[in-house]
Design a protein that fits this description.
By secondary structure, the protein is α/β, with parallel strands linked by helices. The protein contains 18 helices and 16 strands. The protein has helices at 15-18, 31-38, 48-51, 59-68, 71-79, 85-91, 98-101, 113-126, 150-161, 178-181, 190-203, 219-225, 254-262, 289-300, 321-330, 398-401, 433-436, 441-461; strands at 142-146, 165-169, 206-208, 228-231, 237-238, 251-253, 281-285, 305-309, 333-335, 338-345, 351-364, 370-374, 380-383, 386-389, 393-394, 428-430. Helix 2 crosses helix 4, helix 4 packs across helix 8 and helix 5 packs across helix 8 (113-126). 46% of the residues are buried. The chain binds flavin-adenine dinucleotide and iron/sulfur cluster (SF4). The site of flavin-adenine dinucleotide has 41 residues, from helix 9, helix 14, helix 16 and helix 18. Iron/sulfur cluster is lined by residues 41-44, 47-49, 59-60, 102-104, 111, 113.
Length: 463
């Protein structure tokens, strides 16, 4: 019966309208659509979907009350395992996690778990319905959390409820990590992230913004005052292409481009002070979520044409299928099997074009993806006045360089035990992208939860 009900589509802003504004693209389910979609879940006794969720949300448990119209019960079930449902419902790659394992997906389409999670979280926000889980009596122990992305926020939320004092140190002037400086407003409205941070502050978490740890204070100095430290500084150092012309005016890293637009609100210039470099003909290099976000932002900032330049084929594109679909609908052009050789500029060192080379796919490389091989004599040039490089990020060495005893791997990521988040340095834990390399919001949250449990045990029983 449930299998016969089609998966409920998500209403969206029309592509031609939304490519000119920064308002959210998917509009959310109506109560009727949410109840119908929730009715598709057959409430499996051994739900496979839960095994695909890195934080183990009781998925049938939060979906059933939606079907029954009991929204407070649904929100309460979600709150047992996640502090950021409105965020995860929007940006998690459900298609490769919980939804990939849903039994309905074997014969048809899986239950739209992410859309239902978003519906429940939005219902709570719109109805001012907040769940304040019980807080344990104060222990007198103090924890310093460095970085306020999803890993840091999860640790802070878990430890404050366990009765410990928690201070989050954040280098930027706003908390949220990539959720505020990277992911654009049209995918994740900033007010939603701010609300999650406000909830933590209301529980007693202290936020020290504009605090670059490693400069202002070292981890060892923090440990003179705090009983434990959790490092969650992400992987925010941009990787560039290292080709000639990369220092021309008009070539940006995706980090700078997106941070200007999102965190510094350049898309609202001159209402906000930060200007945005204007590009009529734009190319974004790379094809991950970051590249899609940069390309779609460029369209909204007034570009006439935006190309994604990617050296592999459509099959290897690492971005979420939904993001690629949205980008193409909005008019972003995919230039596949093309690699940049050189940026070209005018006498004032302003970007005017890029020389590209066609590629073909050879044998699989270490990542298992087929290696792109240059096609001799296939060079061509396109006109360009803005280039955004989105080919990955690396670890920021500031903390590791100023913290003796912290071990890193060959890429500079901190080594921490997977089961606990413990580093080799006593009283110091780490998690999120600074341990795994660039990953996902939910994996960062999962690492935060694991570390919070371990820190709590240490504060109660010792190292
Ligand atoms: C543009 C973009 C789009 C993405 N889209 C998705 C998506 O759709 N779905 C998904 O699941 N994932 C997505 N990701 C990945 C995801 O956002 C990250 O994996 C996740 O945010 C990592 O969380 P984190 O807590 O480890 O670090 P971050 O979110 O990077 O937060 C780290 C924080 O630490 C702060 N910090 C750094 N150094 C210091 C210091 N020395 N002192 C104090 N503070 C410091 C930083 O300012 C930052 O606020 C995207 C990433 C980007 C960049
Ligand atoms: S696997 Fe699918 S049908 Fe079964 S409980 Fe999970 S969401 Fe519902």
């Amino acid at each position: 019966m449930s299998e016969q009900i089609p998966r409920q589509p998500m209403p969206e802003q029309p592509a031609q309208e939304r490519r000119h504004n920064f308002k959210e693209v998917p509009l959310g389910y109506t109560p009727e659509a949410a109840q119908t979609e929730a009715g598709r879940c057959i409430q499996c006794k051994n739900p496979a979907c839960v095994t695909g969720c890195p934080v183990g949300i009781d998925i049938p448990g939060f979906i059933k009350p939606i079907k029954e119209g009991d929204m407070p019960a649904s929100v309460a079930k979600l709150a047992e395992r996640t502090a950021l449902p409105a965020v995860c419902g929007r940006v998690c790659p459900q298609e490769s996690q919980c939804e990939a394992r849903c039994v309905l997906g074997k014969k048809g389409e899986p239950v739209a778990i992410g859309r239902l999670e978003r519906y429940a979280a939005d219902w709570a926000r719109e109805n001012n319905h907040s769940i304040i889980p019980p807080k344990k009596p104060a222990t007198g122990k103090k924890v310093a959390v460095v970085g306020s992305g999803p890993a840091g926020l999860t640790v802070a939320g878990d430890l404050i409820l366990k009765g410990h004092e928690v201070t989050v140190f954040e280098a930027l002037h706003q908390a949220g990590g990539v959720l505020v400086y990277g992911i654009p407003e049209f995918r994740l409205p900033k007010a939603i992230v701010q609300r999650e941070c406000d909830n933590l502050a209301a529980l007693g978490v202290r936020f020290e913004l504009n605090s670059v740890i490693g400069r202002l204070q070292t981890i060892d100095e923090l440990l003179e005052e705090y009983d434990a430290a959790f490092i969650a500084v992400g992987a925010g150092t941009p990787t560039m292409l290292n080709i000639p012309g990369e220092n021309l005016v008009g070539v940006f890293s995706a980090n700078e481009y997106l941070t200007r637009s999102n965190l510094m609100k350049a898309y609202r210039f001159p209402e906000y002070d930060t200007p945005m470099y204007q590009g009529k003909h734009v190319a974004v290099f790379g094809a991950g979520n970051v590249a899609m976000d940069a390309a779609r932002s460029a369209l909204r900032l007034g570009a006439e044409d935006v190309k994604i330049i990617y050296r592999r084929s459509r099959e290897e594109i690492p971005a979420r299928a939904e993001e690629v679909h949205h980008a193409e609908e909005e008019g972003v052009e995919l230039c596949l099997l093309s690699a940049p050789l050189e940026f070209i500029g005018d006498e004032q060192a302003r970007l005017t074009g890029v020389k590209l080379q066609k590629m073909e796919l050879g044998e699989p490389d270490a990542s298992g993806r087929r290696r792109p091989v240059p096609l001799k004599g296939s060079e061509y040039t396109i006109e360009l006045n803005l280039a955004v490089v989105a080919v990955g990020t690396a670890s920021n060495p500031l903390i590791t360089a100023t913290t003796p005893g912290l071990e890193t791997n060959k890429w500079g990521y901190i080594q921490a035990e997977e089961a606990t988040g413990k580093t080799r340095k006593p009283c110091v834990w780490a998690g999120g992208d600074i341990v795994t390399g660039a990953a996902t919001v939910i994996l960062a949250m999962g690492a935060g939860r694991t570390a919070a449990d371990s820190i709590d045990q240490f504060l109660s029983w010792g190292w």
